[in-house]
Amino acid sequence: MLAAGGATAGALTLAACGPDDGGAPPATDNGTSGGTDGTDGGAGGGAIASLDDVPVGGAIAATTAAGEAILLTRPTENEIRAFSSVCTHQGCAVEPGSGELECPCHGSRFDLSTGEVLSGPASEPLPEVSVEVSADGEITG
Predict the structure, then answer these.
(1) Which of 34, 37, 43, 135 qualifies as a FRET site for 89, CA 20 to 30 Å off?
(2) In terms of Cα–Cα distance, which of 15, 76, 80 is closest to 43?
(3) How many whole angstroms separate alpha carbon 3 and alpha carbon 121?
(4) What's the confidence (pLDDT) of residue 4?
């Protein structure tokens, strides 16, 4: 089983053979189904990364199909989370760090699992972004 977190989707759990969704397209951030381009796509289009790209206990920078800069984190073997990479302090690009997410501009650090602030000057957590993980390990969003 693999869980993917998202701000609107909550935790998504997948079985090895794929989700039993009855063929319904997944919900998008605006509460509708399907892609924004008229397709029946996932949370925003094609694959943005593979599960194998994200190290357990680490993170990678990625870009969503909509062009949003995000950080994909993998706190545990069976969990993928995604957060905006825009620092809540002054808008700098947050980067993957050693077991956490780090802003190089002013030193804010964020939790890999929750996006919560570990140390400031940022006072707000990184916003979570909705992503989906397919049965074959493709991450879309």
Answers:
(1) 43
(2) 80
(3) 31
(4) 54
Q: What are 25-30's contacts with CB under 8 Å, separation 24+? A: 26/132, 28/130, 29/130
The answer to whether the beta carbons of residues 129 and 70 sit under 8 Å apart is: yes
The two structure tokens encoding residue 97: 């760090």
Asked whether 45 and 132 are in contact (CB, 8 A), the reply is no
Amino acid letter at 112?
Answer: L
At 14, which amino acid appears? L
- Residue 82 amino acid letter: A
Find tokens 């397209």 and name the residue: 25
Report residue 83 CA to chain centroid gap.
Answer: 5
Q: In whole angstroms, how large is the CA radius of gyration of the chain?
A: 15
- Strand arrangement, sheet containing 79-84: 12-14, 2-4, 79-84, 69-76, 58-63
* b/e 105-132 (16+ beta carbons within 10 angstroms → b): eeebbbbbebbebeeeebeeebebbbbb
Give the pTM.
0.69
Helix, coil or strand: residue 64: coil
User: In whole angstroms, what is the distance from residue 56 CA to residue 79 CA?
Assistant: 9
